[in-house]
Design brief:
Layout lengths: L1 H13 L16 E7 L6 H4 L3 H9 L1 E6 L6 H10 L3 H4 L5 E4 L4 E4 L3 H4 L10 H7 L4 E4 L15 E2 L8 H12 L9 E6 L3 H7 L4 H22 L7 E6 L5 E2 L5 E3 L9 E7 L2 E6 L4 H9 L4 E5 L18 E5 L4 E3 L9 E2 L11 E6 L7 E2 L3 E2 L3 H8 L21
Helix pairs in contact: 1-3, 8-10
Bound molecules: adenosine monophosphate (AMP) and zinc ion (2 copies).
One zinc ion (ZN) binds next to loops.
Length: about 400
């Protein structure tokens, strides 16, 4: 019965729209609409009731996606946009200190977030603008900044409170613009289920409710999309930046119980990962003390395992600390009470993200092999017929998702 229902939803989501197509209006240049749902763990659809995502998988592609390290929001959204590892694009954490320019960056510092000089690489919206592809970007990390002295063609000041349905309206309105001015690349963002996941944990009734609410909003989104005359030309990607791990107060590590904070020059990051600046002559002392702490990984600058692609950028400072999955890393003056978090080693499967895609470029009912999020940039470029800027991803890793 569930199968039959799924088949019906699939048909209604991705086929009935064809009846609305006015051949004269349909245009054949590709469209790509990318949505990121912050903190949508790869396996939520296996745990919770998500008929719309299930139908999207039937109509297109699903894969488990590996975030870049650290599995935090800003580094990963900007990796999705550029195809570069955080070490290479420079947004190495949600907050960081740049020892070269002596300037700090933080997600809550609106001026820093809008300052393009912090952002390296070329976001896909710049690649698009440079090659004549119109774009509209709603709240994606980096979209408010003047990167390479350019802004996305349409961009907006971040407003966390803008309802999901208003965001749907924006996407619908852009895709309803006259063909001449209509964007072909749209990227939009919603901050859930991350917020609820932090507050209540990934396995809570509240997170279940939020995930199911998001799925129902996605149903509204596709209903709106189906009304567009050019629906059949649009490729959709629904993805996320990272997953969510369950925390417990029995698994707290208080860092300053083990080291003298007077030896530190900078503390950047938040639970469960930090980059520390250490005062001259104190590095060995601090490192040796932290090495002894159970359930904590600590690395000196430029000595992280290669698979993490992290720790060479000067903004990662002298030491990188990350707790083992499920453990929290706090300071005695700021012990948190959140029930979920992310930022752990990206080998932890609970950090993995979703990747759904459907539309004319994609195979149908295809479960793709797990891949890294650096590959999304070359994939987006391919779909839009753009020549990609240099990046750390590889189209070869994701080409299997595309129709021949
Ligand atoms: P975190 O869970 O700490 O890694 O970050 C998630 C938070 O990042 C969200 O709840 C938003 O408040 C914030 N955020 C995401 N995108 C943006 C943006 N473009 N501008 C400002 N804040 C953002
Ligand atoms: Zn996030
Ligand atoms: Zn978060």
């Amino acid at each position: 019965m569930k199968k039959l229902l799924l088949a019906l939803i699939t048909v209604s989501l991705f086929a009935s729209g064809c009846t609305f197509i006015n051949k004269k209006q349909a245009d054949t240049k590709p469209y790509l609409v990318v949505l990121s749902l912050d903190g949508f763990r790869w396996d939520y659809p296996q745990t919770y009731n998500t008929p719309v995502l299930d139908s999207l998988q039937k109509a297109g592609v699903f894969a488990e996606m590996i975030p870049s390290f650290p599995s935090k929001t800003f580094p990963n959204h900007y990796t999705l946009a550029t195809g570069l590892y955080p070490d290479h694009h420079g947004i190495v954490m949600n907050s960081f200190y740049d020892p070269t320019t002596k300037r700090s960056y933080s997600v809550s510092d609106r001026k820093a977030v809008r300052d393009g000089s912090f952002y390296g690489g070329e976001p896909i919206w710049n690649t698009a603008t440079k090659q004549g592809v119109r774009n509209a970007i709603l709240f994606w990390v980096g979209s408010e900044a003047n990167i390479q002295n350019m802004h996305p063609e349409k961009w907006y000041r971040y407003n966390q409170k803008l309802p999901f349905t208003s965001r749907i309206d924006s996407v619908y309105d852009w895709l309803s613009l006259p063909a001449k001015v209509r964007p072909h690349l749209i990227m939009w963002y919603y901050p859930e289920p991350d917020g609820t996941g932090h507050h209540f944990g990934p396995h809570s009734p509240e997170t279940k409710q939020m995930v199911e609410q998001l799925d129902s909003w996605l149903g509204q989104f596709f209903t709106a999309m189906r009304r567009l005359p050019n629906f059949k030309n649009i490729n959709f990607i629904i993805t996320s930046d990272h997953g969510m791990q369950t925390l417990s107060p029995e698994r707290n590590i208080i860092i300053d119980k083990y080291i003298d904070t007077a030896d530190l020059s900078h503390i950047t990051g938040n639970n469960p990962i930090y980059n520390l600046g250490v005062k001259p002559g104190k590095l060995e002392k601090v490192y040796a003390a932290l090495k002894k702490v159970h359930h904590l990984q600590v690395w000196k600058h430029d000595s992280l395992p290669e698979r993490l692609h992290y720790g060479q950028n000067p903004r990662t400072l002298d030491l990188t600390l990350v707790a083992d999955p499920g453990w929290s890393l706090y300071w005695s003056w700021a012990v948190g009470t959140e029930k979920g978090t992310h930022g752990y080693d990206n080998a932890d499967r609970d950090m993995h993200a979703i990747f759904y895609a459907a539309g004319p470029a994609f195979k149908k009912d295809y479960h793709a092999p797990t891949f890294r999020n650096v590959d999304v940039y070359p994939l987006m470029a391919k779909i839009l017929n753009l020549k990609p800027a240099p990046n750390d991803g590889s189209l070869k890793e994701v080409q299997n998702m595309l129709k021949k």
